[in-house]
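To the wet lab folks,

You asked to see what we're planning to order before we commit. Fair enough. Below is the target structure as tokens, and below that is the sequence we designed to fit it. If anything looks off to you, flag it before the synthesis order goes out.
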């Protein structure tokens, strides 16, 4: 047992004071839905954190176990009528547990190497290639088998796309590749850039190699490392980009992290102001596409298409409507709205590595919904979700093809939309 009350900063304590324990968060929480236990609900976890902060509950393994089962989807924040920012209190408690060297998560052997790899793009890409090769020949170290199991069967090969001339009158956009997208879905990143340009964005480049946004560090109890990563991004943006540039990412968790830089660096006397300004410029990729000056046209193939939305785009950014609106523009395909479209799938960054049983239990509901709806294409808007869904579909011999949103849309994009029929044309 660890002695001493849980240490929390003022902003975390404010969230505890703000929560009135009404229970509106309970049905929104994926782990509470699965277990029905109060300690696995946001209200229950906040009560435990408060008790540990007041010294009424020992800071030990039972507390760590209760907190570790949280996926971090932030659906409770969207459901809360009082606007409690649960994640602030949760991350503060996690960080103190890590400082005390009590593993607030069940730290599986695959997780520390992954956290190290995301800080080094080339190493991450090399590890992905090695993992896929080892997977094909069934030669995997036991500790790394869960990580390799999530990898797609083959690596994406970046394609050669026809350059789209920049629209100098369009909004300035800096597209952030993000670590996992760059390593596992490089083609989707290319497609995302191409569609931004086609919609009228004037793409901007920040100089030098792009680092990790810090999301995984923040979510695993390492806020100082997350602040270091956040500061590196803000410095580059401030130095290299026009001040009105949109910061766009095709991974909802990364976009939500960057949108939180203002709070994360609030105590930094030099970078608090720039961080707050740039955080206000962050957009999820789909939301950015919907706001571009030129509407994109798409033609489908008659497929039944479903969406798995990003929890953070829905709950943290409030931009979850955009992916479905884009998919609805695809003429010829049938958009099927699954009941769990906007619910957490159980991926949760490294959650499905640390808590595989619960992650699979949450995923099962989604797999059943997709199978019942006879889905042909399952579109994901977040790389972790795409990996998690893909693994689930393969394990259950499902028939849905899991693809990233930008890739699905780019395959159906019509660079030169057909002219309207004669009856719809205006007289010249």
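Sequence we intend to order:
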């Amino acid at each position: 047992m660890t002695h001493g009350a849980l240490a929390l900063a003022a902003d975390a304590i404010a969230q505890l004071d703000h929560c009135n324990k009404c229970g509106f968060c309970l049905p929104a929480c994926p782990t509470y839905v699965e277990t029905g236990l109060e300690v696995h609900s946001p209200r229950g976890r906040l009560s435990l954190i408060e008790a540990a902060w007041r010294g009424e509950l020992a800071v030990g393994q039972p507390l760590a176990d209760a907190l570790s089962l949280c996926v971090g989807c932030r659906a409770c924040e969207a459901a809360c009528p009082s606007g409690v920012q649960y994640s602030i209190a949760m991350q503060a408690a996690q960080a103190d547990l890590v400082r005390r060297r009590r593993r607030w998560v069940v730290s599986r052997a695959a997780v520390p190497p992954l956290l190290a790899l995301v800080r080094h793009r080339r190493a991450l890409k090399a590890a992905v290639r090695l993992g896929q090769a080892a997977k094909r020949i069934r030669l995997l170290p036991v500790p790394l088998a869960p990580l390799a199991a999530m990898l797609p069967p083959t690596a994406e090969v970046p394609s050669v796309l026809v350059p789209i001339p920049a629209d100098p009158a369009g909004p300035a956009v800096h597209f952030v590749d993000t670590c996992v997208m760059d390593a596992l879905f490089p083609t989707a990143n290319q497609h995302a850039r191409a569609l931004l340009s086609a919609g009228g964005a004037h793409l901007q480049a920040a100089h030098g190699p792009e680092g990790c946004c810090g999301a995984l560090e923040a979510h695993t109890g390492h806020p100082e490392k997350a602040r270091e990563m956040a500061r590196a991004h803000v410095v580059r943006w401030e130095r290299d980009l026009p001040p009105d540039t949109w910061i766009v990412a095709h991974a909802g968790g990364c976009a939500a992290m960057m949108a939180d830089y203002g709070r994360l660096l609030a105590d930094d006397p030099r970078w608090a102001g720039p961080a707050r300004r740039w955080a206000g410029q962050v957009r999820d990729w789909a939301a950015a596409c919907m706001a571009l000056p030129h509407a994109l046209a798409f033609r489908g193939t008659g497929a039944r298409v479903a969406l798995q939305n990003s929890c953070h785009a829905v709950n943290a950014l409030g931009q979850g409507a955009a992916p479905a609106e884009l998919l609805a523009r695809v003429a010829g395909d049938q958009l099927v709205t699954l009941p769990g479209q906007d619910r957490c799938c159980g991926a949760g960054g490294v959650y499905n590595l640390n808590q595989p049983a619960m992650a699979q239990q949450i995923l099962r509901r989604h797999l059943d919904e997709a199978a019942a709806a006879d889905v042909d294409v399952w579109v994901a808007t977040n790389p972790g979700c795409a990996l998690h869904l893909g693994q689930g579909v393969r394990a259950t011999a499902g028939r849905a093809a899991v693809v990233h949103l930008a890739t699905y849309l780019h395959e159906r994009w019509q660079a030169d939309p057909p002219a309207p029929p004669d009856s719809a044309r205006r007289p010249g």
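Structural context that might help your review: The beta strands are 172-176, 202-203, 246-249, 282-284, 298-299, 304-308, 330-331, 334-336, 377-380, 401-404. Residues 223-240 form the longest helix (18 residues).

Thanks,
Computational group
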